[in-house]
Prior knowledge:
- There is one protein chain.
- By secondary structure, the chain is mostly helical.
- The chain has one domain: Up-down Bundle (Growth Hormone, Chain: A), CATH 1.20.1250.20.
- It contains 14 helices and no strands.
- It has helices at residues 2-32, 35-40, 55-61, 67-86, 95-122, 128-156, 159-174, 199-207, 210-222, 224-239, 244-272, 275-299, 311-338, 345-389.
Amino acid sequence: MRRFVILSCLYFAQGLPFGFFSHAVPVLLNRSHPPEIAGLSSLLAIPWAFKFLLGPLIDKLGPGRRKLAIVPMQLLTLSTLIVVGLLDISEARLTPMLIGFFLVSVFSAVQDVATDALSIDVLSPSEYGSGAGIQYGAYRAGMIIGGGGVLAMVDHMGYREGFFLMASSIALASIPVLPFREPSASGATKPAANRGPSFLARFRKFIVRSESRRLLLFLGCYKFGDALAAGMVTRWFVKQGLTTSDIALSRGFTGGLAAIIGGGFGGLLVRRFATRSALRWLGGLQGAAILVYLVLALIHPVQIGMVPMDLRVYYAASAFEHFFGGAATVGLFAQMMEASDDDARATDFSVQACLLALVTGVGLLLSGFITKWSGLLGLFVVASLFGLLSPLAVTFLPRRAVAR
């Protein structure tokens, strides 16, 4: 139980500021900027797409030494939030917040690589499904607080209080981590410089496997439709006439809570069935959730001066999207854990996670340009098509586990 508490605290600390930035920035930009500019805000999270470069360095630390990377990154994250909170932030002056978003992305990406390796260190293979659920659930819990609670509070009180609250929450989440003693693998007492393959060798070892290439192709296809839709759903909510508080509660709180429950559902499916079978079903349900927005966009098209539908419709659509999107993500995490080799856990997992982040980033980026060319309705058509085809991506998965 203590292992799960430690992992929950670490993933919560990642999700808290990211939840605020990923919900606040799109809302502010979609109010006063064209869709392609709002879509470009996804580039602020680009450090997550390149965190695989850190994997070999974390593997050099080895089991028993992951905290040497985790704790400093926690301190840098909360320090950045405090500094940004002391600056003058407003809708007309977003530059300090955007810089803060980028720096927090860098620190969180480093912490994430080390925490992913730590999770594989402390969990047995039979616990990977539960671990993936904890990983996703705690991260989304942080996003609920940051993207729902803090964003709603900022709407009523101000940015400074919101940033200070996030910094305090990360400090509290770091306390249980400090006394935790990591398990050490055999040979962990050897000097780090002499342990295992070199930086490039670890990376090449994963990439050259034919099974790995098939796995990466699967990851590149499975979440693309979901990423396209996610890029402009907030803009659709804004154009539908919802207030910042409505968006915060529907996308941040209700959606985040549904994602946590959905993550648990995904973990149960992975434990009950083979990961491959679970991913096929979850991919289909994820695609159906995207299709809901297409149906709503047809029923209630965007027009000037429009009055929103019953708010419960938006809450239900957001909950449906996040529930099945979260369930599919947990299935992916379990598959990624299974495909991580014992002597290169940080490298193998981070390479897969980075491709997933890159696909998501490309989807978010393209969503703005597709919306500019074809409107929100056209975007939902394209996203639904890719989403409903995502179960076919499971055919790319190798028949045997990559690392075994």
